[in-house]
Amino acid sequence: MHIASSGDRGPSLEDRLVSVAQGDREAFAFVYDAVIGAVLGVARRVVRDPAQSEEVAQEVLLDVWRTAARFRPDRGSAMTWILTMAHRRAVDRVRSAQAATDREHRTAIREHTTEYDEVTEEVEARLEREQVRRCLRTLTELQRQSVTLAYYRGCTHREVAGLLDVPLGTIKTRLRDGLIRLRDCLGVGT
Amino acid sequence: MTPADLHTMTGAYAVHALDEDERREFERHLTVCPACAQEVREFRETAARLASAVAETPSAQLRRRVLDGIVTVRQLPPELPARQPAVGAGPGRTRRVTVFVLAACLAAIGVLGGVAIDQYRDARRAEHTVGAQRERAAVIEAVITAPDAVQASAPVTGGGTARVVVSRALDRTVLLTSGLPTLPNARVYQGWYVDHGRMRSIGTFRPGTALLAAAVDRASGVGVTVEPAGGSAQPSGDPIVLLEFAGGRA
């Protein structure tokens, strides 16, 4: 599994994307192999259903092929670009499915709550990277819950506030504070 | 909402946790808040690490489906900074634009032998067809994106237009037509290299498909004639279009 590190061997993921934009299918296969694990991983966390997660992953990779020319290296790494798309797609998938059942909000919240502990556990258990695990642990409970519910579950901040029974304003700041702490712990942007 | 409120939304925005109208409002704010934009970039990178940490092993079938799938997916051109007429642009820029326009044309007329498809479509077609199409599409893309590619276009007698792209470095020519009338069953369109006053066949084609030809050699252009089904060894009538290769390198 290639994780976020590019450029240590041969052309970087960014270079490969440039080739992909020119229609290079070999370069695309390389990009596929480098990102699919994480793309599928985030889709599974958010969507849950294995078949639907695969569909999301497939859509994301086809999007990479389709929109490679629009990748802007000055706005972040190729991995981040692709994983942002993956998360967006996964979230869109659950929200459109959810829209139909919004009237049963209360029930939904109860379900969410039961599922919640299991998710965190599962996420924690399966974190492949020791560093991420370690960094998540440096967050306060509320920060960590906000980040994992929003990212791994695809909840809106409003839903997070409802699930945790905390005012929306608090969730907003905890989510941001949590990401700041994670960012600094992981050494992002330094 | 105050700017301070907006600023605290960077986190929720980065992990797609805003509602639609909040997202739109925040995106307007982003255009005037470089610090927010920077923070969002960093949060997205942070979030990507969260994704990497839960990576899973995909099935082999997924890889096949995706790699086969891209064959039928048209690639978008880059977003150009300004939509100004090509007049003011330098030669490099013009060429780039031309290539993308060409790519769009190619897709539009169906390089893959079918209707151009913008979206993913189930790619489980006959394996051998896909293989051949991939190969051919890859070569065509290589030609139109070749650094030395030059092109010419002209209207066709009887309707439609023809365009040719040649790369001498790759020794390949791509002939594209659009809007050509459909011929009766007993007739076909045939392409020719114009080579020192002689016509050298490069094959027959159906309207709306691309003709890919090798062995450019010393050809100075390409012509099209209408021939009996199966094609002819020599043109049996006047060309309905003649396209001269522009001299030298692009």
Keywords:
heterodimer, A: 190 residues, mainly alpha, 9 helices, globular, disordered N terminus, B: 250 residues, alpha+beta, 4-stranded antiparallel beta sheet, 7 helices, 8 strands, 35% helix
Can you offer a commentary on this structure?
The complex is a heterodimer of chains A (190) and B (250). In chain A, helix 2 (25-47) packs antiparallel against helix 3 and helix 7 (141-151) packs across helix 9 (168-186). Chain A is globular. Chain A is mostly helical. The model of chain A is unreliable at 1-8 and 103-128 (pLDDT under 50). Helices cover 74% and strands 0% of the residues of chain A. Chain A contains 9 helices and no strands. Chain B has helices at 3-7, 10-14, 20-30, 34-52, 60-69, 91-109, 127-144; strands at 150-155, 161-167, 172-178, 187-195, 198-205, 211-213, 221-228, 241-244. In chain B, the strands form 2 sheets. A 4-stranded antiparallel beta sheet of chain B has the order 1-2-3-6, covered by helices on one side. In chain B, strands 5-4-7-8 form a 4-stranded antiparallel beta sheet, with no helix packed on it. Chain B has 7 helices and 8 strands; from the N terminus they run αααααααββββββββ. Chain B is an alpha+beta fold. At the A-B interface, helix 2, helix 3, helix 4, helix 7 and helix 8 of A face helix 2, helix 4, helix 5 and helix 7 of B.
